[in-house]
Amino acid sequence: MLLMRKKYKQLTSEQRYAYFQLIKTITFVRLNFIFQQFEKMGFSEQTHAL
To answer: At the top level of its lineage, which domain of life is listed (predicted)?
Structure first.
């Protein structure tokens, strides 16, 4: 974790932005996958109510 932080500080702003976008995309895909699993289990009515 410390190594990651050291590397992150060495990145340029463009690289930082790309890194951030990558993390955002991965998080979004994970959340999407979780919601799909819930819908398969029959929680679709509740999720649409929110």
So the answer is: Bacteria
- Which one has a higher pLDDT value, 30 or 38? 30
Residues 6+ apart with CB under 8 A from 35: 47
Q: What are the tokens at 26?
A: 């991965």
Give me 10's structure tokens: 């060495």
Q: Contact at 8 Å (CB) between 29 and 37? A: no
- Kindly state the tokens that stand for 15: 């690289």
The pTM is what? 0.49
- Positive or negative, the CA dihedral 27, 25, 28, 41 is negative
